[in-house]
Structure formats: C-alpha cells, structure tokens
Specification:
The complex is a heterotrimer of chains A (about 575), B (about 375) and C (about 325). By secondary structure, chain A is mainly alpha-helical. Chain A is built from 25 helices and two strands. Chain A has a two-stranded antiparallel sheet with strand order 1-2. The termini of chain A are far apart. In chain B, about 25% of the residues lie in helices and about 35% in strands. In chain B, the strands form four sheets. In chain B, strands 7-8-9-3-10-11 form a six-stranded mixed sheet, with helices on both faces. In chain B, helix 2 crosses helix 3 and helix 2 runs parallel beside helix 4. The C terminus of chain B is likely disordered. Chain C has about 325 residues and is of the alpha/beta class. In chain C, a hairpin with a 4-residue loop joins strand 5 and strand 6. Classes of the chains: A mainly alpha (about 575), B alpha+beta (about 375), C alpha/beta (about 325). Chains in contact: A-B, A-C. The interface between A and C is large, with 54 and 60 residues.
C-alpha cells in the first residue's frame, strides 16, 4: 500500500541522460568508424590479403627481408635515442618554466615551443643548410680556421637523432607543462616534511606524480619518431643510413614487386605492433600508480627559487633556443635572401626578390595557405570534440572496451603518413555507399586524413587532462542541481581548458604544414601549404622554397602569439 | 520535514558486495553518522543516497518520495534530489571565485540575480567567509576551502545534507573547530544530516545516532552512549573507544550476575559481571575507565607501563597472562613494577565465537 | 582604337567565326569536358602548356595533379588496387612504370596526327606512349668548385672528386633507374662503373632535386642528373653547369599516355596531340627543352642534336632484369 502512495519521481532524468549518452556514443562510434577504423581496417586487411585470399605470406616475406629487419633495428635505435633525449629535455624544460622562478617564464614558454613550429621536412633541410658538408656553419668554420674539412656533418644516425629530438621534445614539453602546472605542490611538500631528502622526494613523489605525463609524452614522441620519413630521408640517405619508413617508401615505389602495397602494409604493421605493445606497457605502469592530481582542494603553485642559478639557467635556455629555433629559421632566411642558391652569402648577393615572388608570383600559394589554415583548424576542432568524447568514455565513464578505441586511434599515427594516405585512397576512392558522396579528389578526404592521423594527440592530451580532474568536482555540480551535461559544460570543460588548448595546438601546428598525407591526396584547388613548399624545393627553386618556409614558420609563430595573448588575457581577468 | 529512509540498500560489484542490505531511517532534523573502517561501504552508501551510484537492490525514500528503487527502475538523478553534499576532497571549483562557487546551486535553480546575491552572502556569513567572496580557492587555506564547500552545500537549503569525511583533510585543531561549527550549523538550521566518517571521536561528538558499518553491513545503530556502553559485538566495542578483551569461562551465576573465571587465573579470582550471561567460554569487554584500583578487587596485577596524559594517566597492567589498560585520574599515581589489585565496575560479555570478527584485541 | 586596329579585330573575329562554323559544319563537334592529368613535370611548364591548350580548346578543362614521380606512382598504384586509375592522361619520367601499365593493357593506343612529324622511335609500344620533348641525363658540375670542365661519365670516378660526386637513387627516381639499367648492360660501363663510383665514395641521394641542391651548394661538385634541373638553376644564377659527356647523354624517356577506359577519350587525345603541335613544341623550346618534333629550332645554347651522342635506354634489358638491377645496385652502394 505504501508503495502505491509514494509519489514516484519521474524517471526522465536518468533515462534521458542515458539516452543522450547512448546517442552520443553511437554518433562517436560512427564517426570513428568512418575516420579511423575503416581505412585502418583496409590497411590491416591489405597486409593479410593476397589475390583475394587470407594469408600471412606478406608478413612472412617481411620477416625474411633482411634489409627490412636491419632498417627496423636502425629505426628503433634512432627513435629510442630521440625519445630518451627529447623526454628528458621536454620534462626538464617544462619543470624550469612551470615550477621555478625563472625570470621571463612566459617568453621562454613561447620560445621553447618554436622548434615544433618548424615543419619536420623543412627543419631537416634547414639543418642540411647549416651543417651539411657545405652548410653555412661548416663554411664559416672552414673560412675561419682554414681547415679543409667541415666541423660537423649532420648526415648519419646522430644527425637524425638530433633533428628528431629538436622537433619532438615540444610534444613532451607541452604535455608536461600542463601536468606540472596542475600538480598539487602540497604532495611534494608533504614528502619534504615527512623527512624526504630532495633525492628521495624526486624518486618517491615527484617522479611517480609526473610519470603519467612523462610516459604519455614519451610514447607519442617515440611513435612519431618511429614513423617519421622526412628527417631520416634528408639526413640519413647521404650517409647510407636507412630506417623502416624509408624502406616502406621504397617498397611502395617498387611496382614490379607483386603485392608491393600489401607488403608495405605488412611492414607498417610492425610499427603498429610496437606502438600497441608500448601503449599496453604504459597502461600497465600507470595502473600501478593511479591517482588524481587535481582534486577539489585548490592550491597555489609553489615555485623553486633558482637564486644565483637563474642567470646560468637562462643562458643555457637561450643557447638552446638559439640552436633549436633561431639557427634553422635563420638558415631558411639566409637561403631565401641569397640571389641564387649556391652563391656565397656575400652582401652583393643578397636580395628580397624571392619574398616578393613568393608573396605575389605564385598564384596557388595564397590558396594553399587558406586551405591549410582551414584544414588545420577544422581538423584540430573536430579532433578536440571527438577526443573529448573518447576521453570521457574511457577516463570518466570507464566504459569497458574503451581501450580498443585507444588502439584504433594509434594505428594512423604509428605508420608512415604515405601508408595512411594510401589507405585513405583505398577506403574512399569510391563514393560512400548510400550517401553517394565522393570524397576522393575533394578537400574532405584531406580533412579526414588529418583527423585520423592526429586524433591521437587530442585523445592523449584530453585523457591526461580529464583523468587529472577528480570526479567529485563534477559530482558537486550534480548535487548542486546541475544536470550531467550542464555540470560537464560549466565545471569540467573550463577546468580542462588548458588541456583542450594544448591538444588543439598540438594538432593545428603540424597540420598547417602537413606534407606526407597531402601530397598523395590533394587535387586541383585543394593544394596545401606543405605541398606547395615541397613542390618548390623539389623543382630546384630552393630560395623560393626557403622564403615560403620562412613565411610559413613566421605565420605559425604569429598565430601562436596571438592565441596566447588572447588566452592569457582571459586567464588574468 | 525531511525524513530519509533506506530500505534493504545493496550494491554489488561483480561478486563482491560493497553494501549489503542496509536499512536505516533518518528522522527530520536528525544527525546520523555512518561510522566504520575504510572499505566498509559507508561512502558507497552515501553515494547511493546522493544518486551517484545505482543500487543493486533496495530503495531510498525521502519524505515519502521514492528516489531510487531497483524494481520499477526508479533512479532520480543527483541534481533532482534536493540534497547538499560536502566531499572529502572539498571539490571546490578552482576556476570560480568563492562567491561563484557558493552561488552555483542558486544559479542552476534559476534564482534572480538579486536573490542569488542575498542568499550567497548569507551563506558565506554562516560559515564566516564574508570577506573572501572575491578570492579564488587556491588563495584560501584548507579550512576556508572546506567552509566554501559547506556554504555551497547549504546555500539552497537542501532537505538533506550529506557529508563524506569532510574533516579528514584538516589538521587536528581545525578539525575540532569545524566539528563544533558543523554541529552548531545543523542545530541552527535544523537540517537532516547523513555523515560519513571513520573517526569515532567525530562521530560521538556530532551524532544524534551512529550506524556502525562493517563489511558492507550495519552492525549496530544507536545513540553514542548506547553504542559505547552496550556495543553489540566486540568489533563495535573496539571501534568506539578503547576496550580490554579478556578471555574466560562462565563458571556460575549468582543474583543476576555471572561469575567468570579468566584464563590462566585461579577460580578464586573470578569476576562478577552483572546481567544475563551466556554459558561457556566468553570474551569479557572492559573499558579502561571501568577498571578501578581496589584493594579488595579480584584481579592481581603489576604495572608495566605508565603514560602521563595531562588530564590523567594511562597504565598498562599485567594480570596473569592478560594485559589490560587502566585509566587513572590525576590522583592515581602508580609506579612501574608496582603490584595493584583491580576491580571491574562494568563489563559486557560476548560468547567467545563472536570474537572472530576483525578485532579481538584492545583497540587504541 | 584606330580604324586599322578595328579592321584587324573584325577580320580576326570573322576568321574565327568561319573557322568555328566550319568545324561545326564538318560534323565533328569540338571535344569538351574535363580531363585529369597526373604528371611530375614542373609547375611552370605544365601551367604554360595547359593554359595555352585550354585557350585553343575552350571546351576542355585540364585538372592537374602535379607531384614528384614517387607520389604519382604511389597514387596510381593505390587507385589501381581500388579499381581504376582516376587520371585520363599521365606524363612523367618513369617509362618502366608506363610499360608495366602497358603490359596490363591499361594504356590506350593513339596515333596523334601532329606527332607524325616526330621520329617514329618517340612513339613507344605501338603508340601507347609518346615522347613529346627530350631530356637527358648528363654530367653536371659546380662552377665554383670544379676548375677542369668534365668530359666523360668516368669523371665521376676521378680521385679528385672523392666523396664529392653524386647521383639520384634508382629506388626513388625513375630516370636514375633507367640510367643504372642502361649503363649496367653497356660494355664500356657495366657494373664496374658503379663499383668504381662506390670506391670513390660517390653519394646516392634521393631525387634529382636533391642532387641539384647538393650540387649547387657545393656539397657535391660533380653529378649525374637530368639536364633541365641544371639549366633552370643556371638561369637563376646558381653556380652550376653541365656538359654533354663524350660517351653520350642518356635520353630519359618522359612518356605521355592515355589511360584506357577514360571517360573523355577525345579530350585526352586532343591534349596529347596538342603537345606535338608547333605551339606546344615552341613552349618547350622557350623552357629550354629540346623538342621532339624535327623542324622546330632548338633552344639557344643547345648543340645540334645531330652533333650530340645520344644513348638510348636499354628498355628490353631493364624489363627483364628489374629485380637484379635494383638488388645489385643496392648491394654495391649498401642501400637498404
């Protein structure tokens, strides 16, 4: 009787939330299937099919290919070295900027991200301009000392590691900066008070606390180094040092080898396998140390006083920025201002002619810039939205099997861009069934490829951001009367805004000058900046290419500064 | 009026029951505490009440309104339960000022700007944070953040206030201060409170009634004195305050009291424990303050440790094979090694089998 | 505008009208529609040609996918695997790849009327592909670093150029592959030539563009490279030049072909035919290429082709020994 008398609250709330959740999940799954899963499946299927039959023959072939095994070894060597160096560098720099009283921290923050804004293929060429056998620095050295031999030649594995490290450390830096900023210093202080020496503190508290961020950044850096084609191609080839991506590219071009694309796919699967194994290792390690860094207890960030170390540290950072950013950009600028490539950089040979030509004389360049900006901001925005959904499913709702998504997102990032582009062509050359929409030869296929390729950046950054925010913050909003969506919008979203911005930035920057995907997928009117700049270089218009590359880098830096200015002003108020 | 009723509330994670068949009624304006060691299911129970966890079985009813029932799939979401909650981690929002944090429930409820301002200010006054409205949480101390959380939970005058270990992150002095402040607020606002803690002192000071939970079940519900003086089992006895447990055997009864011979002691030194007694082997539970130095006392012992506490002294006394703690007033001055005779003023007997729960030793 | 100018315009318009009506009256409508061209020709060249072509054939639009031959070959392979090549016309310097397509019967046979003025040897494989202008692999050098003008291919193996001689990789560049395949089978060169180059620490770089960059910078001072890269750099003012080697310059076929099953065969044929017309041939000359058609004057500074020793690629040998050529070269130079 009593039950009948109970006024049952309408079940609208949870059902609706559940329904919306299911709908969002379905939409997300569909989008992911379209973007990532389908082309990736084409890739996996390709590696397993010969003349329409299922077979492991291609894998068998790759195992027997001694050169492939050797290049894989080389790949692992340079990628591991670059990852160790880049991770150490990125972490230390992030700590210096976020957790010490280093003067001018805000400016360092911008300067230290500069190397990431130099596209990898342009950076590699710039280093050849500087430290090739006839590079500017070597010429300077030979002129100054009278030595017939260059000082250092960049060609070879050490040069590859150097270039990969410089390009890649900002990935770790950007991740760690967020982690360190949000890390509760009380956790460290508590350990100090508990009697921990600074060394113990580092070992017992700081390192474990930073571990998720460090591992996430290191894994991204490792996979990006492993799949990089441009840097080893430019710096490794002249020294006969080859890595797996260059071997894969050779296999793609080796058209008289039967099933060469399938074999290339099988070779790429090695890279995927390595990435996935590391992903699981990372998760194992992190499961041992699950914690939340941002709780509902707010604390003011504490900073270590550098004292008399401030000046030496600033000097080291300055030298670092000089090497990492100023030198390569300067090499581009110098190459762009010399009348003809190969003339000595003497005053009478200098001209601004090439800049004029680039700005006014290449009709498709403005269009390419507009395309690239639209594609990059579009891809970054789509990725942030998708990644928010994925991260929420995995990190907050802890949906079972959510980690499968994680693996699927990894595939298009772990393999060379050329392979992703080929998979995109295979997937979308025919109109989409039912809809009848043609993607191939439109700008949309490039957008899809970018989203698939860079989705991992969004997922990683937002997972890191979201898993650092304690559940109770959102729950406090729920109990205060806000619905699930509103609590997410008004509480979680503003708190993880730094992660959103970081993810957006990590995608936007490389997407603006993306080359390997675009060069296979572009069509008339849909050229991208990377395609045009690389085209100029490839046709032997080195000065024009350098001028365009310089302007592109400057543009990225400008965009970054404006964006920073906007967000910082907002933070101050 | 706000009466909260839990009926047969259970929560299973796979094969593991985090909460099992919890029934509890919290009367209007009553302060009830769920007390238990960590992992006993008290927080899970609270979170089911809040609506963050969907129960596996049972119902939650607030003022006759069904909030949650497995049959019929009723599950009112947290935002529609009209409750306030204070989290262990405070959960103050770092991106909002103190004022905005506290005003949030009012804004969500769609109150006018004027009303929001007035009620937020009053709530801040209630927790003595008037001057800090414009500050951001990271500019506040832990205690101040806790007050923000409290003001936010109270600002919309919830029917029920839920508190999840709200004081566990504060230092001892602040904890005591906040304890009284919470009590004071509750009495002034006459609000129904469900409070979760593992700290028995906190529970004793604050609660009208305490529900002790072990392994997902409520083992005893009652007023603090009742729980302390008549714990339902040795675990409750040991969890609330200090208790000496002495093993022995009931050897007879006389005049409404049982005679218990303690293990390893002669029958001549048997204790007299008033009240109905089980037969056979028993566990005698004696609070340290229920022991007294008495030249005629049945127990002969020797002082092995003496601890000065300021307000009194704490002795450890060896009685045959047993060791007991004895609370002495400032006037009772014994030296280590001194022979004493002890009398038992009050004791509770449990059949020995019931001592198999988590603790049979004296808890400090 | 003066009276005379008006007259000229009127006459011109009239002639045009007559011509248009004439062709229409002739029954065959002018080809129209869109064709897609995949090419690795330089942007400037392709732009000039397609602009001129569309002016002359206003009904036809040419979509150009221009990239290095690597991406073009990759893209065609992927399209082929997914069904059908999406291009109507393809044009780049990898005749071996063209022939592999021809063997699979993917190229349309066509005899362009304007092409009859070019030697028959420039129409390969039963008119399935066509040479429309000539480029050569030559010996190039850095004029700031090299004092003695080279004369022979063997100069690349001279001790004074130790570690400073270079060539593009046959694994990346179709032109370089042709070169290796042809030289390997020649009695005066053979694999020995490459072993000597390896012994002289000659550098194998990526593409012709890379070789051009290394040569102009002085990183290498002597190179095997396609001639027009050198001419273009020289025209810009870079310190590079090339010679016509005494043993002969190697003709690098850069065929144009129509894809079988194109949706717009007539327009595709019109484009291929156009490339042989005097207008197009003059554009080639203007861009300092040697034209394929006989009676067009050569670009300034080019020796008469009659005086040049020209080596023809050994297509038969290449086709039969593709795998060996690659593996032997890879072994000699240690390329993985």
């Amino acid at each position: 009787m009593r039950e009948a008398a109970l006024p049952v609250a309408p079940a609208r709330g949870p059902r609706l939330a559940g329904g919306a959740l299911v709908a969002a999940g379905v939409a997300l799954a569909a989008a992911l299937a379209v973007l990532v899963v389908y082309p990736s499946l084409m890739l996996v299927a390709g590696s397993l099919l010969a003349d329409g039959r299922l077979t492991l023959a291609h894998y068998w072939r790759t195992f027997q290919d001694r050169a492939a095994v050797a290049t894989l070894g080389n790949s692992l060597v340079v990628s591991t070295a670059a990852t160790v160096l880049g991770t150490a560098l990125g972490t230390v720099l992030a700590w210096l900027v976020t957790r010490t009283d280093l003067p001018g921290r805000r400016h360092w923050d911008t300067l230290l991200l500069l190397p990431y804004m130099i596209p990898p293929f342009i950076g590699a060429i710039a280093w050849v301009y500087l430290l090739g056998p006839a590079g500017y620095l070597n010429q300077l050295w030979m002129a100054a000392t009278g030595s017939p031999d260059p000082l250092v030649v960049i060609y070879g594995p050490a040069g590859i590691v150097f270039a990969l490290t410089l390009y890649g450390y900002p990935i770790v830096y950007a991740t760690m900066r967020g982690v360190l900023q949000q890390m509760n210093p009380a956790l460290e202080e508590a350990a100090r008070i508990a009697g921990a020496t600074p060394a113990r503190l580092l070992r017992d508290v700081t390192v474990p606390l930073m571990l998720p961020g460090v591992l996430a950044g290191a894994l991204l850096l490792f996979m990006s180094s492993l799949a990089n084609f441009g840097i080893p191609a430019v710096i490794g080839f002249p020294a006969r040092y080859f890595v797996l991506p260059t071997r894969i590219y050779r296999t793609i071009l080796n058209f008289d080898l039967p099933n060469n694309l399938q074999i290339a796919a099988a070779l790429s699967m090695w890279l995927v396998a390595i990435g996935v194994v590391l992903l699981f290792l990372q998760r194992r390690l992190l499961r041992l140390s699950r914690f939340t860094v941002v709780t509902g207890q707010a604390t003011a960030p504490s900073r270590v006083e550098l004292g008399r170390w401030a000046t030496p540290v600033a000097a080291v950072l300055g030298a670092f920025v000089l090497v990492g950013a100023v030198l390569p950009v300067g090499a581009m600028l110098l190459t762009a201002t010399i009348r003809a490539y190969g003339l000595p950089p003497a005053l009478e040979n200098l001209t601004l002619q090439h800049f004029e030509t680039v700005v006014l004389g290449i009709p498709k360049l403005p269009r390419a810039v507009a395309n690239s900006l639209a594609l990059a901001s579009g891809a970054a925005t789509i990725i942030v939205v998708l990644a928010l959904g994925i991260a929420y499913l995995i990190a907050r709702l802890r949906v079972r099997g959510g980690h499968v998504l994680d693996v699927l997102v990894t595939i298009p990032y772990a393999v060379p861009g050329t392979v992703v582009a080929l998979a995109m062509i295979l997937a979308w050359i025919r109109p989409i069934p039912i809809l009848g929409v043609h993607l191939y030869n439109t700008i949309w296929i490039i957008l899809l490829a970018y989203v698939a390729r860079f989705l991992i950046f969004g997922v990683r950054t937002l997972m890191a951001g979201l898993s650092q925010v304690h559940d109770s913050l959102e729950e406090a909003a729920r109990i205060s009367g806000a619905g699930g969506a509103r609590a997410f919008r008004e509480i979680t979203l503003p708190i993880i805004r730094p992660s959103i911005a970081a993810g957006w930035f990590l995608v936007f920057v490389p997407a603006v000058t993306e080359l390997t995907l675009s060069i296979l997928l572009f069509s008339v009117g849909n050229e991208t900046l990377g395609v045009v700049v690389y085209g100029l270089h490839e046709e032997g218009k080195f000065a024009l290419a350098a001028a365009a590359a310089f302007l592109a880098t400057t543009m990225l830096v400008g965009i970054h500064l404006i964006a920073r200015g906007l967000t910082q002003r907002e933070l101050v108020t | 009026m706000a009466e909260l009723v839990l009926e047969g509330l259970s929560k299973a994670y796979g094969a593991v029951w985090a909460v099992r068949d919890v029934s509890l009624a919290v009367a209007d304006g009553e302060f009830v505490t769920l007390l238990g060691p960590s992992g006993c299911g008290k927080t899970t129970t609270l979170r089911m009440v809040a609506g963050f966890i969907r129960p596996t079985a049972g119902r939650i009813v607030l003022d006759g309104r069904l909030l949650s029932a497995v049959e019929g799939h009723v599950m009112v979401p947290p935002e529609r339960r009209g409750m306030g909650m204070v989290f262990q981690s405070y959960a103050v929002w770092p991106h909002m000022t103190v004022f905005d944090n506290v005003a949030y429930p009012l804004r969500v409820a769609g109150l006018s700007r004027h009303e929001v301002a007035g009620r937020t200010t009053r709530a801040l006054e209630l927790v003595h944070l008037e001057g800090l409205a414009g500050q951001y949480p990271h500019q506040l101390s832990g205690g101040q953040q806790q007050r923000v959380a409290l003001a936010r939970a109270l600002v919309n005058e919830p029917a029920v206030l839920l508190l999840d270990e709200p004081l566990s992150n504060l230092d001892a002095k602040l904890r005591e201060e906040m304890r009284f402040e919470i009590q004071d607020l509750q009495r002034r606002l006459r609000i129904t409170v469900l409070y979760v803690t593992h700290d028995q002192g906190e529970a004793m000071v604050l609660s009208d009634r305490i529900a002790v939970m072990v392994s997902g079940r409520i083992v005893q519900v009652g007023a603090p004195e009742e729980l302390y003086e008549r714990p339902a089992d040795p675990f409750v006895a040991s969890f609330l305050g200090v208790a000496n447990f002495l093993r022995g055997e009931v050897v007879g009864a006389d005049g409404g009291a049982a005679r218990v011979r303690l293990d390893g002691l002669p029958e001549a030194d048997s204790l007299r424990v008033p009240g109905a007694a089980p037969a056979g082997r028993v566990l005698v539970c004696v609070r340290p303050e229920a022991l007294a130095c008495d030249p005629d006392g049945p127990l002969r012992g020797q002082v092995v440790r003496r601890t000065y506490l300021g307000s009194g002294l704490d002795y450890l006394v060896a009685v045959g094979p047993h060791t007991v703690r004895l609370a002495g007033g400032p006037d009772l001055d014994l030296r280590v090694g001194e022979e004493v005779r002890l009398a038992v003023r009050r004791a509770v007997l449990y059949p020995e089998t019931s001592a198999t729960t988590s603790s049979g030793r004296s808890a400090t | 505008m003066g009276y005379r100018k008006l007259c000229i315009v009127a006459v011109a318009l009239g002639t045009a009208a007559v011509l248009v009506v004439g062709t229409m009256a002739g029954g065959a409508p002018a080809p129209s529609g869109t064709i897609t061209l995949y090419t690795s020709e330089s942007d400037d060249d392709v732009n000039l040609l397609t602009r001129d072509f569309t002016q002359r054939n206003p009904g036809i639009r040419v979509n150009v996918f221009r990239a290095g031959s690597g991406p073009v070959v990759s893209r065609i392979q992927a399209e082929l695997q997914a069904g059908r090549i999406q291009a109507d016309v393809i044009w780049f310097a990898d005749i071996d790849f063209f022939r592999s397509l021809a063997q699979r019967d993917l190229l349309e046979s066509y005899s362009p009327p304007a092409g009859r003025r070019a030697p028959g040897e420039f129409h390969y494989d039963n008119n399935r592909m066509h040479e429309v202008r000539l480029i050569f692999n030559v010996v190039a050098f850095n004029t700031r670093a090299v004092r003695f003008k080279p004369e022979s291919w063997w100069d690349l193996s001279l001790p004074r150029y130790r570690g400073r001689a270079g060539m593009p990789s046959p694994f990346i560049s179709g032109a370089a592959f042709n070169h290796v395949g042809t030289f390997a089978a020649m009695r005066e060169f053979g694999w020995d030539f490459y072993r000597k180059l390896r012994a002289n620490d000659a550098k194998v770089l990526n593409s012709n563009g890379d070789v051009a960059r290394a040569l102009a910078s002085g990183e290498i001072v002597i190179a095997q490279i396609v001639d027009f890269f050198v001419r273009n750099l020289k025209a810009q003012g870079s310190p590079v030049d090339h010679i016509w080697p005494s043993e002969g310059a190697l003709l690098i076929p850069t065929p144009v072909a129509i894809i079988k099953g194109t949706q717009n065969l007539e327009a595709a044929q019109a484009f291929v035919n156009y490339l042989y017309t005097p207008e197009a041939q003059r554009i080639f000359v203007q861009r300092s290429y040697i034209p394929a058609v006989r009676d067009i004057p050569y670009p300034a500074g080019t020796p008469d082709i009659a005086n040049l020793r020209i080596l023809k690629p050994n297509l038969a040998f290449i086709e039969q020994n593709r795998a060996t050529i690659r593996s032997t070269f890879g072994e000699i130079f240690g390329i993985q």
